[in-house]
Amino acid sequence: MRATALDEDGKRINFSGGPVGPLMHDILTGTKPDGTAYTDNADRTCKNWTSSREGSAQIGHHDRAGSSSSWNSAHETLGCSPGLFQKWGGGGLFYCFAIN
Question: Residue 37 half-sphere exposure, CB side, CA atoms within 13 Å?
């Protein structure tokens, strides 16, 4: 995943154990390890990606660091503010996918 963890300018995103900081391995997904949405009533998408304060988000680690082997569902955030994302190794980044 490290090889494909690029920003919109094609630059590598900082990863756990990487040569530069700050750590930016958290990615916003809101999904279970199998890539599907949660069906309970818990907010795992920062109010459908509209809140920068209330709620929380399910995140993955693009470098698969930590106790979870799932790149798209490692743990929940402590909140939805940019400061909380940065504190725990994220920048509020999304992965975008396209179909050819």
Answer: 7
